[in-house]
Structure formats: structure tokens, C-alpha cells
């Protein structure tokens, strides 16, 4: 009924389709191969988040709806596909808000023999091109804020931001860092990745102008178990998150391809990340032992990208059928 009554709502979803088509064209021109990877995982990996659990009757085993396709896409790099991407559906059993949905569409792309600086340039090229194609300008209006997509974009240090706000040192362990954040915010429970991300978004909104996209760099090693350490600083990794208009839109890093270090990083992740099942993906580690080339990976949240390009205030405004609580009374469905 909303689509019938409001032509402007219908236009949002027409343009959303155009954005996805243009994104495919962009990566095709760069010679990336579009692939599909499994949505049912025996181990929930590739990101931090609470997974949905279900049961596969034929094999009598529990499986998870994927929280990210990352580990499968990296296997393809091992198999010799040097440029791959997937526009995928992922699922995280977490809260809903104007910025979050439990099921969402992501773009993930991986390129061998490049690093995270390559993906920064790719982000700048893709988003500035989409802005021109969809809105006809590099300067867009988003929720009363003018955003200039003209490259180059600003860079902000995550480590410096959290040291200023919480007194965190680069050399602090993950547990100590979390304790400092909880103490400052007077929290009693452990922090999830989503909560840390929300804190980051709030700090960026409070401390930095939003008139240009911003790359957040210098992430702590313990928060990035799949990213390669910086050569000159083992406490930080070669990673960035892209924020546009105060929203996190993309995440990328130089991929860790050392199987021994990756196993140790997985173990440390499970010590501080309570939402993940206490399992290590040995199949993925075996694929690294076969040999994964140096590579970089990028993830872009399609819903948030569409929100910004089409000036929509809520993620529900760019989802045709957002998840809603069921009505308490079945008679409420009747006309």
C-alpha cells in the first residue's frame, strides 16, 4: 500500500536497483569475477556478531546463517581466482534500529597482490562515481548535511580517538581496553562488536565534521583478527572503516595470510568476543596453509550506502519488507 500511495517511495527502490547494477558494472570493469558462497555455515566466522542458529535435518547437525562470506571468498583466492566479489545476504541476531537490520545486503570484494590502500582508492572511485550517476553531483544533501564526495577523503586515527576518550594505550590487551571503556561508560556487561561500532560512530559525530567522507585507520590488532599487522607497529593493523555522514559504510584491510598467526589471533578473539561460538575454523586455516597470496578485502553495507545516496533517514526506508514484530492479535490482520 505504501508503494501504491507514495510514488516517491517506489522511486527509492527503483534507484536502489540502479545502485546495485552500477556497482556490478564498476567491479566488472576492474575484472572482478562475481561469485556465490554458502549461506549456511558450520562455524560462524568472518566477522564478529551473534549468529542465527538452525538445524539441518538430513545431516543432523547445527548450522548458522552466515554473518559474513569472508572466509569462503578467501578460499577462492587460494584457488587461484585473484579478483572476486559477492553481493550477498548476511544475518546477525542483534537489535534493530534506524541503522541496523538483522538481515542485510553486503558487497564483499577481494583482490590478490594489493593492500588496503588499493581498497581506499577503490572506495573513493566507486562512491564518487555512484554519486555522480545517481544524483548528478559530487556534493549531496544527506539529512540536512552537505557531503562532498570529491577525493581525496580525510583520515582519522581510531587509536588516537580511543586514547583521547578512554585513556587506552596501543599496547593494552583487549581485556584491559574493554575494561576501560566499560568503566568510562559505567557499563556492567561485556561489549559486543556492534556496541563498540556504535561508540565509534558517536565519537566521530561528536569530534569531526561530516562534510566529507572519512577513513578511520589505525585499528587495534585485537579488534581485527583477520587483518595484517602494520610493519612498523604490531599493535595496529592495516585496516580502515569508511564513515559517510556519521554512518559506517565500508570496512577493509590487508588480509592476514599467515596460518600460524591466524590461529593465535582466532584464539585471542574467542577470549574477548562472547557472542561467537567457541570454535576455530580449521578448514579455513588449512586453506591458508596451502598458500593464500597477499591480498586485500573490502565490505560495503549496501543498505547504508543507499540511505546516503538517496537521502533516507532510516534503514527501513530502503528495505522493501523490513522485519517487524508480529501483531499480538491475529484479528488485527483482518480488513
Give structural notes.
By secondary structure, the protein is α+β, with helices and mostly antiparallel strands. The chain has one domain: 2-Layer Sandwich (BirA Bifunctional Protein, domain 2). Helices cover 37% and strands 24% of the residues. It has helices at residues 2-5, 7-29, 70-78, 116-135, 158-166, 174-185, 193-207, 259-272, 282-291, 302-309; strands spanning 33-34, 40-41, 53-56, 61-65, 83-91, 103-112, 139-142, 145-148, 154-157, 214-220, 229-230, 233-244, 247-254, 295-301. Strands 1, 5, 6, 9, 10, 11, 12, 13 and 14 form a 9-stranded mixed beta sheet that branches. A 3-stranded antiparallel beta sheet has the order 2-4-3, with no helix packed on it. Helix 3 packs parallel to helix 9 (282-291) and helix 8 (259-272) runs antiparallel to helix 9 (282-291). The mean pLDDT is 90.
Amino acid at each position: 500500500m505504501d508503494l501504491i500511495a507514495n510514488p516517491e517511495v517506489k522511486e527509492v527502490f527503483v534507484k536502489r536497483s540502479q545502485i546495485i547494477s552500477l556497482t556490478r558494472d564498476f567491479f566488472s570493469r576492474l575484472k572482478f569475477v562475481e561469485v556465490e558462497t554458502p549461506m549456511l555455515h558450520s562455524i560462524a566466522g568472518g566477522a564478529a556478531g551473534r549468529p542465527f542458529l538452525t538445524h539441518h535435518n538430513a545431516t543432523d547437525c547445527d548450522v548458522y546463517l552466515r554473518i559474513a562470506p569472508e572466509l569462503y571468498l578467501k578460499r577462492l583466492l587460494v584457488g587461484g581466482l585473484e579478483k572476486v566479489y559477492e553481493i550477498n545476504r548476511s544475518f546477525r541476531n542483534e537489535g534493530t534500529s534506524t541503522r541496523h537490520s538483522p538481515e542485510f545486503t553486503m558487497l564483499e570484494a577481494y583482490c590478490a597482490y594489493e593492500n588496503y590502500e588499493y581498497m581506499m582508492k577503490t572506495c573513493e572511485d566507486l562512491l564518487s562515481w555512484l554519486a555522480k550517476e545517481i544524483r548528478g553531483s559530487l556534493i549531496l544533501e544527506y539529512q540536512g548535511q552537505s557531503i562532498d564526495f570529491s577525493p581525496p577523503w580525510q583520515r582519522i586515527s581510531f587509536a588516537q580517538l580511543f586514547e583521547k576518550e578512554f585513556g587506552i594505550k596501543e599496547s593494552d590487551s583487549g581485556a584491559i581496553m574493554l575494561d576501560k571503556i566499560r568503566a568510562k561508560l559505567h557499563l556492567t556487561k561485556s561489549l559486543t562488536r556492534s556496541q563498540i561500532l556504535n561508540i565509534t560512530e558517536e565519537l566521530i559525530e561528536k569530534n569531526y565534521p561530516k562534510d566529507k567522507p572519512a577513513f578511520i585507520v589505525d585499528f587495534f590488532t585485537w579488534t581485527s583478527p583477520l587483518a595484517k599487522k602494520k610493519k612498523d607497529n604490531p599493535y595496529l593493523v592495516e585496516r580502515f572503516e569508511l564513515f559517510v555522514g556519521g554512518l559506517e559504510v565500508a570496512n577493509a584491510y590487508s588480509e592476514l595470510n599467515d596460518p600460524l598467526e591466524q590461529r593465535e589471533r582466532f584464539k585471542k578473539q574467542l577470549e574477548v568476543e562472547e557472542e561467537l561460538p567457541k570454535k576455530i575454523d580449521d578448514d579455513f586455516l588449512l586453506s591458508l596453509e596451502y598458500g593464500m597470496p597477499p591480498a586485500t578485502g573490502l565490505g560495503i553495507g549496501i543498505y547504508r550506502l543507499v540511505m546516503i545516496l538517496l537521502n533516507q533517514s532510516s534503514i527501513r526506508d530502503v528495505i522493501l519488507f523490513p522485519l517487524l514484530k508480529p501483531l499480538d492479535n491475529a484479528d488485527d490482520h483482518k480488513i
